[in-house]
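Postdoc handover notes: sequence design on the structure in folder B. Input tokens:
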């Protein structure tokens, strides 16, 4: 499916359980609502240029068993627990570099029994942001359910994370 750049939002459960969907190009999309692609078990590619994306909702890519790669652009401000359920062992998540933190109030949704291949974190990830205060809650948990991790220069704090508690894979690759 190729969506025109005029489409700004993928609505709630818009492609829910569309098992035949393998690729979607949605370069103009700014918001992906909850459950938008849940159960699209044959979805491999969800756009290569999500440069306008600002929000990814809860369970948006839940049980997308064959998903190969998602790039969360620097324009994105908030991600719900979007990636739960089964994942391809080839799955790569790239969170592009930015000075602005990415708000992930419920985590990203990864499960230790279904680790992805690689995660690149290019900015701070927070569970909460308190405006006007310097003390931020840290992001923790399921980001370590990947076989390989890489951090960019914009990552300045990953406070309070216990790798052995949250990471289920081979710690030598961190």
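Designed sequence:
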């Amino acid at each position: 499916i190729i969506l025109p750049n005029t489409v700004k939002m993928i609505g709630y459960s818009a492609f829910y359980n569309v098992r035949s969907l393998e690729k979607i190009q949605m370069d103009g999309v700014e918001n992906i609502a909850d459950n938008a692609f849940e159960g699209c078990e044959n979805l491999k590619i969800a756009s290569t240029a999500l440069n306008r994306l600002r929000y990814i909702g809860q369970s948006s890519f839940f049980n997308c068993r064959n998903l190969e790669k998602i790039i969360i652009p620097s324009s994105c401000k908030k991600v719900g627990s979007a990636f739960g359920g089964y994942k391809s062992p080839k799955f790569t998540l790239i969170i592009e570099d930015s000075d602005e933190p990415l708000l992930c109030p419920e985590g990203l949704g990864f499960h230790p029994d279904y680790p992805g291949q690689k995660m690149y974190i290019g900015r701070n990830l927070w569970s909460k942001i308190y405006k006007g205060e310097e003390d931020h809650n840290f992001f923790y948990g399921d980001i370590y359910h990947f076989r390989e991790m890489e951090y960019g220069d914009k990552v300045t704090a990953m406070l309070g994370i216990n790798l052995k508690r949250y990471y289920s894979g081979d710690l030598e690759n961190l």
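Context for whoever picks this up: The CA atoms of residues 19 and 40 lie 5 Å apart. Don't rerun without checking with the PI first.
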